[in-house]
Amino acid sequence: MMHYRLWGCLMLGSLLGALLLSSCGQATPQASAPEANTFKPQPTREPVAPVTATDAKVTPFEVTTLDGEPFAVTATPAKPVVLYFMAAWCASCLPEAQALAELQQKYGHDQIDVLVLDVDPGDTAADIQAFREASGLSKHWAHDAEGRVLKAFQVQALDSTIVIGRDGQIVYRDARPTSLAVLERTIAPLLQ
After folding, report:
1. What dihedral angle (degrees, nearest 10) is formed by the CA atoms of 144, 149, 153, 156?
2. 73: CB partners within 8 A, 6+ apart
3. Residues of 120-147 as b/e, b for ≥16 C-beta within 10 angstroms?
4. Phi, psi (5° rounding) for residue 171?
5. Which of 56, 76, 77, 87 allows an S-S link to 120, with CB 3.0 to 4.6 Å?
6. What is the pLDDT of residues 26-79, one digit of tens each?
7. Domains parsed from the chain with CATH numbers
8. By the 8 A CB rule, do 70 and 64 touch?
9. In this structure, how many other beta carbons lie within 10 angstroms of the beta carbon of residue 150?
10. φ/ψ of residue 82, rounded to 5
């Protein structure tokens, strides 16, 4: 189990670079289901054009969530969308996932959408589910194992957050843990 985690960490490091690993906490082993990886990540349905800065327009895309449901980000979403990029073993990712759960609870699914994207191809469904349960955020989790959304948004670090307004503009982006206060200050004006 520990060898598998180490191999997964090394693979992710080679894919995402040193910056990715420097933004995460120490890898912590978690108990999970047997090693049989029967989880088959669903690819995004359409290629996504690169988006690098705030004030950029989002290119529509769709992913299949871990619950088997489609999750689409359109050119003009009906409500603000928060994209959060993480890995199940990333200890520093958990506090922001918990903050996103509080944000979702405060505003509800009818006012904002949160999509959490696990970007480690080595993470299993059991790994992601354990992280999901620890976070308290129940809806909209996807495994971006092929890195299509990660690459499209040119995300280079775990704990990256992107907020998309109703007009399809990226209004916030970071590559570090984001507090609940910052998330609320970013989302509140988008709801008016």
Report:
1. 20
2. 58, 60, 61, 62, 81, 83, 115, 164
3. bbbbbbbbbbbbbeebebebbbbbbbeb
4. -100, -15
5. 87
6. 333 343 433 333 334 444 444 444 444 566 888 899 999 999 999 999 989 999
7. 2-25+39-191 (3.40.30.10)
8. yes
9. 22
10. -110, 125
User: Which pair of structure tokens corresponds to residue 98?
Assistant: 């918990």
Q: What is the DSSP letter of 2?
A: H
Angle made by CA atoms 164, 66, 167, in degrees to the nearest 5:
15
Structure tokens that stand for 102 in this block: 């509080």
> Measuring CA to CA, how many Å separate 2 from each of 5, 35, 92, 118?
5, 11, 19, 20
Burial class (CB in 10 A: 0-12, 13-18, 19+), 151: middle
Q: What DSSP character marks residue 58?
A: P
What's the DSSP call for residue 56?
Answer: P
Helix (H) or strand (E) holding 160: strand 160-164
Residue 16 is encoded by which pair of tokens?
């995402």
Taking only the tens place, the pLDDT of each residue in 101-133 is 999 999 998 999 999 999 999 999 999 999 999
Contact 97, 116 (CB under 8 A): yes
Kindly give, in sequence order, each residue whose CB lies less than 8 Å from that of residue 178, ignoring residues fewer than 6 positions away. 96, 99, 159, 161
Token pair, residue 162, equals 């992107």
Strand 141-143 relative to strand 113-118, pairing = parallel
The whole-angstrom distance between residue 158's C-alpha and the CA centroid of its chain comes to: 8
User: What are the φ and ψ backbone dihedral angles of 107, each rounded to 5 degrees?
Assistant: -95, -20
